[in-house]
Write a structure and sequence with these properties.
Blueprint lengths: L27 E5 L4 E7 L6 E8 L36 E8 L11
Antiparallel strand pairs: 1-2, 2-3, 3-4
The structure holds zinc ion (ZN).
Length: about 110
């Protein structure tokens, strides 16, 4: 009639923290060039062309309402790869100022 005493303070079931999640296998370097602008060095996710993309993040300061009569037909917040014409990287809440293809990829010279 004795109940077994079960003490479940076993520390062996300690779970390690899950690893950080990154974007799937796309190289990306980010340089903050101004409080609202960043220079992204990345590889096109379609053709792996090395690209430098200037973006401006939309903030309450720079996202003023546009004057009426001048409406953009399409939002220019999409980058376009100059090499393959596809979207090289998906960006949110920012305006793409320019996309330039780099002569060499910073990730191709990975000699060790
Ligand atoms: Zn491309």
């Amino acid at each position: 009639m004795t109940k077994p005493i079960s003490e479940n303070f076993d520390e062996s079931h300690y779970k390690p923290e899950p690893p950080e999640q990154f974007f799937p296998a796309q190289h990306l370097k980010v340089y903050q060039t101004s409080p609202t602008e960043q220079l992204l060095i990345c590889e096109c996710q379609k053709c792996l062309a090395p690209l430098s993309i200037e973006v401006v993040f939309m903030t309450p300061q720079n996202s003023k309402p546009r004057p009426k009569g001048k409406t953009d037909s399409k939002p220019d917040n999409r980058a376009q790869c100059p090499n393959c014409g596809q979207v090289p990287i998906y960006l949110e809440s920012c305006i793409v100022k320019s996309v330039n293809q780099l002569p060499t990829s910073p990730w191709q010279n990975s000699e060790s």
